[in-house]
Amino acid sequence: MINRRNFIGMGLGGVLALGIIGKGAGMGFFSKAEAKDKAGGDFPFKLSDAEWKAKLPPKSYKVLRHEDTEMAFTSPLNDEHRKGEFDCMGCGQALFASETKFNSGTGWPSFYQPIKPGAVGESSDTILGYTRTEVHCSNCGGHLGHVFNDGPKPTGLRYCMNGAALVFKAAV
User: Fold this and answer.
1) Which domain, by its residues, includes 76?
2) pLDDT at 41 (0 to 100)
3) pLDDT tens digit string along 102-124?
4) Burial per residue of 138-163, b for 16 or more beta-carbon CB atoms within 10 angstroms, e otherwise
């Protein structure tokens, strides 16, 4: 099974092979042709696609609304260690507390649990040819990243999030 940790060490040939398997993968990672609300589509915070595009920076729009993934080690939030919370870039909902952030070595901000139950939702993602658990904001449906079962105690989970989908708010 290929996970993001293994993916980093695959080299260009492996990346190109996965791009073919991923049915037209984009350069940032594996972008789907159209955004869709995989968790049911009925979220409290809604905007039209044009409104999302106007509201968000280009990379955040691609990640949140079209399920793209930023390149590893490119988000400044990967190195954010101050006390505070990580909120959804799309709607501002609080998603993760800094106390649950850890260095996973993958190049993406990682957390072992959401800030509160129900802050994030999950759905199945099979774009790489195997099933992963996609994580989205429960308020706006924005794609955040994926959760894996190789994280630290106490949960054993690794919420591997795109920094482009998050905004950090320092504690006062």
Assistant:
1) 4-170
2) 66
3) 999 999 999 999 999 999 999 88
4) bbbbbbbbbbbeebeeeeebbbbbbb
For the chain, what is the domain count? 1
Tokens of 99: 């106390």
At residue 144, the 3 state secondary structure works out as strand
Q: Tokens for 133, please give them.
A: 């658990």
Span 22-48, pLDDT tens digits: 333 333 333 333 334 444 468 999 999
First to last CA, the chain: 43
Question: 154 vs 64, 89, 97, 124, CA distance in Å?
Answer: 28, 27, 15, 24
pLDDT < 70: residue spans in the chain: 1-41
Q: Are 15 and 28 in contact (CB under 8 A)?
A: no
Q: Which residues are known catalytic residues?
A: 160
The helix/strand/coil state of 126 is coil
Residue 51: give its domain's CATH number. Answer: 2.170.150.20
How far is residue 124's CA from residue 133's CA, in Å, rounded to a whole number? 5
